[in-house]
Amino acid sequence: MPVEIERKFLVDKTLWGKLEKPAGNLFRQGYLHADPEKTIRVRVTDTTGFITIKGATSGTSRLEYEYEIPKKEAEELLDNFAENGLTKFRYFMPFQGKTWEVDEFLAENEGLMIAEIELHSEDETFEKPAWIGAEVTGQKKYYNSQLSVNPYKNW
Amino acid sequence: MPVEIERKFLVDKTLWGKLEKPAGNLFRQGYLHADPEKTIRVRVTDTTGFITIKGATSGTSRLEYEYEIPKKEAEELLDNFAENGLTKFRYFMPFQGKTWEVDEFLAENEGLMIAEIELHSEDETFEKPAWIGAEVTGQKKYYNSQLSVNPYKNW
């Protein structure tokens, strides 16, 4: 079964601001269903759409099923069926053989940045760039599904 | 936006039993989310899988988005994420230029048969085969999502 293993970290915004980096991709996403055992997310990127079903997190792992769908239909699903959502720029940052996914949240979550790294096993080791801050893996308030209902500006 | 327009009828089981018909396709399905405004269904057929998002029914119409997914993943989604489900044989029955979809329910819904016809508009006219019985369009207890929680044997 497809399992996502990932760790999450805050980002040092001062160091991040000094980096040369590629343009971010604008992501808009919302949830058709969200509870601790299951989230059903629809995401719209610059070019396409996705529907993603994720299970409960156990440590750093969770079941994840993702399907690409037409962008226009993903937009309609968000408009018709998602109660909460968020927007963010995503940056893909290669470092020492891994790619970090860095999210710069917008709107109600402006000011928050989170970096994620996907691993092949829970005990895989990796190098951290200088701009990686404190680890927040497993902290529920940093889940995107949580940020869509209790955004950063309310913390 | 993709809208499904459909009408539902009971089936005269005596007349149905005398028909020559193709073999039925075994469908297993369950719900990742079900409320009056939105259902998220996963279906496994003989050959493949589907994830389908449907909106609230208004008259004979509802929004419907359907995506084909690998059969094995559909089975895993049902096993991991669906709380209720049902199984049925589906028959595709051509008649006067339209195709009726006839469901013969199994297990907890054994004894129930429903025929559906998809229309291009709410007022489209069509011919009914002799084995079509009373119309049940819009009757909630006949929704598949309802049959998965309150099956026919409990009525």
UniProtKB/TrEMBL annotation, chains A, B:
InterPro entries: CYTH-like_dom_sf (IPR033469), CYTH_domain (IPR023577), NeuTTM/CthTTM-like (IPR012042). PROSITE patterns: CYTH. Gene3D superfamilies: Hypothetical Protein Pfu-838710-001 (2.40.320.10). SUPFAM superfamilies: CYTH-like phosphatases (SSF55154). Residues 2-149 form the CYTH domain. It holds the Pfam family CYTH. Signal peptide: none annotated. This is CYTH domain-containing protein.
